[in-house]
Design brief:
The complex is a heterodimer of chains A (about 350) and B (about 170). Helices cover about 40% and strands about 15% of the residues of chain A. Chain A has about 350 residues and is an alpha+beta fold. Chain A has 2 domains: about 100 residues, Phosphorylase Kinase, domain 1; about 220 residues, Aminoglycoside 3'-phosphotransferase, Chain: A, domain 2 (Alpha-Beta Complex), CATH 3.90.1200.10. A 5-stranded antiparallel sheet of chain A has the order 1-2-3-5-4. A two-stranded antiparallel sheet of chain A has the order 6-9. A two-stranded antiparallel ribbon of chain A has the order 7-8. In chain A, a hairpin with a 2-residue loop joins strand 2 and strand 3. In chain A, helix 5 packs parallel to helix 9 and helix 9 runs antiparallel to helix 11. The longest helix of chain B is centred in the middle third of the chain and has 26 residues. The radius of gyration of chain B is 23 Å and the shape is elongated. The two termini of chain B are about 35 Å apart. The chains are: A alpha+beta (about 350), B mainly alpha (about 170). Chains A and B meet through helix 6, helix 9, helix 10 and helix 11 of A and helix 1, helix 5, helix 6 and helix 7 of B.
């Protein structure tokens, strides 16, 4: 568990809030995430002579993690920009780039009360993550609505062009393949035949996209806060970028995020066909099934990059957290998933 | 294995000593952690990554490399010198062994795959399909084997570990 210098943080928050007698009554690290470090803070302070209490969330770059290299200013800027839209996001407070404060850059946002659904078999043997039907249906509606809003966000007007416009045509696909290939190479796994095969195939089969959108990159149940049957805030924007909306759609319908048989609901919320039709209706963006196949490969390639980064961090001692050692070992699951996807789609395909 | 067994065990003991032990309040439990560290260190001197697995990777990787390079050479007419040289190296009675040589075989196979993809348009469609199948077949066998050797991680216990009630067993 990462230690936070509480004296330093107290001084920082008191100055930012213009508060007197500020105390951090509670500080708790969220251990469910395996990437950016998240702390929940309960504050008590006096402002303008009035005693106040406030809960905040602090997101700090880790020394090393699954999505190296980190730059939490991206997430901060995206959340800040999206607060001007109808996308459910937490309200941001401050971004602090100076490592003198807490060792590494961080940002602070308001705490959104609610529940994050955590995938769990032992807590939930039937794999019914959202057992209340009413809640599931209303969350499903919000789930579709929010991803539609994200894909239709006017990223230029919102000042999100800094994320890097991949341009028309094959730009979206090419940029993502090159990005993840570079990450895998940096972690030292580009010289594995399964990676070489996948990288070449992806570059040989890039898909076109002339509708560059804001792509969340990790949109699923487990990455939003639910409250009273509604999505109160979409979280985990660490992989946000500009690209093809079908990349998100392919990720969303991925097997790891489905409910158990017989339903196999997308993100534990709704059947795939229903998700497609409701998304098309809400977003005005047609589902392109051929592109979903390409992005299915890319998402598996991405998973190799994430597990490989953890393996590299553990190997080089950049991250001595045992979780990095465990997650690094899942590289073998990701390799298997990657080639299984190719075998599934390409078996018997002419000129594959 | 993405790192040698001894290094992997060393990282585990380092994490236990530097990350886990300082957080433990109970002297008795902290002592247990140091006992685990000692036990792992004892084991580290006596075990190694199964050589038969590495040998299997070398043999299968070499065979795939040979067949891919020969098929591509037939279609393209020529292959880079590095690939030629490694093909000859593999013909020696004892081309190599161990993790280092396994890594080299895999690296050369990656170069062969890159070359194949860069020139696959010059191969007859059936030949290209055959090479593609060869590569995928090899990868499938190795990844399936490795998956079988993996103990799935209990992510939820690691991420959301809670102390059980004192009277529960």
């Amino acid at each position: 568990m990462t230690k936070i210098d509480q004296d330093q943080l107290t001084r920082y928050l008191a100055e930012k809030l213009g508060a007197e007698q500020l105390t951090i009554a509670g500080i708790e690290q969220n251990l469910e995430g395996w990437s950016m470090e998240t702390f929940s803070l309960n504050l008590a302070y006096v402002k303008d002579g009035r005693p106040l209490q406030q809960s905040l969330i602090l997101r700090k770059e880790p020394v090393s993690g699954l999505l190296d290299p980190y730059d939490c200013s991206i997430e901060y800027r995206v959340l800040t920009a999206l607060s001007r839209t109808e996308v459910a996001v937490p309200k941001t407070c401050w971004y602090e780039p100076d490592p003198k404060v807490l060792g590494l850059p961080f940002y602070v946002m308001e705490k959104v009360e609610g529940q994050v659904h955590f995938f769990s078999i032992s807590f939930d043997p039937n794999w019914r993550l959202i057992p209340n039907e009413q809640e599931r249906l209303s969350l499903a509606a919000d789930f579709v609505r929010n991803i539609s809003l994200i894909h239709n966000a006017d990223w230029r007007a919102l000042g999100l062009g800094f994320l890097g416009d991949p341009g028309p045509g094959k730009g979206s696909a090419r940029k993502q393949v090159e990005h993840w290939e570079e990450i895998i190479a940096r972690a030292g796994f580009r010289k594995k035949p399964v990676v070489a095969y996948a990288a070449n195939w992806l570059k040989d089969n890039l898909v076109d996209n002339d509708r560059v959108c804001l792509v969340h990159g990790d949109y699923r149940t487990g990455n939003y806060i639910a409250r009273d049957g509604h999505i109160a805030a979409v979280l985990d924007w660490e992989m946000v970028h500009l690209g093809d909306p079908m990349e998100d759609i392919s990720y969303i319908i991925g097997t790891p995020w489905r409910s158990a048989r017989p339903h196999l609901w997308v993100s534990h919320l709704l059947p795939q066909d229903e998700f497609f039709s409701r998304y098309e209706q809400a977003s005005g963006i047609p589902i392109d099934k051929a592109k979903l196949k390409f992005y299915h490969f890319l998402n598996n390639f991405k998973a190799v990059g994430i597990a490989g980064t953890a393996a590299h961090a553990f190997k080089t001692k950049a991250d001595l957290d045992l979780k990095a050692g465990v997650f690094g070992m899942t590289l073998y699951i990701q390799y298997f998933n990657l080639i299984r996807t190719f075998n599934k789609y390409l078996a018997g395909e002419k000129g594959a | 294995m993405f790192m040698s067994t001894d290094l992997y065990l060393k990282r585990i003991t380092q994490a236990l000593e530097k990350v886990v032990a300082p957080e433990i309040e109970s002297d008795r439990v902290r002592g247990q952690v140091f006992a685990v560290i000692n036990l792992i260190e004892q084991l580290a001197e006596k075990i190694e990554y199964k050589p038969a697995l590495i040998q299997q990777e070398i043999e299968m990787g070499s065979e795939t490399f040979r067949r891919v390079v020969q098929a591509v050479e037939k279609g393209v007419g020529d292959v880079p010198k590095d690939l030629q040289a490694f093909l000859q190296e593999l013909e020696r009675p004892d081309p190599g062994q161990g993790l280092g040589f396994r890594d080299r075989v895999e690296e050369m196979l990656c170069q062969a795959i890159d070359f194949f993809y860069a020139h696959r348009g010059r191969l007859e469609p059936a030949a290209a399909l055959e090479v593609d199948g060869l590569i995928r077949g090899y990868i499938t066998k190795i990844t399936t084997r490795d998956l079988g050797l993996l103990k799935p991680p209990n992510i939820e216990k690691i991420s959301r570990s809670k102390r059980p009630p004192k009277n529960s067993r």
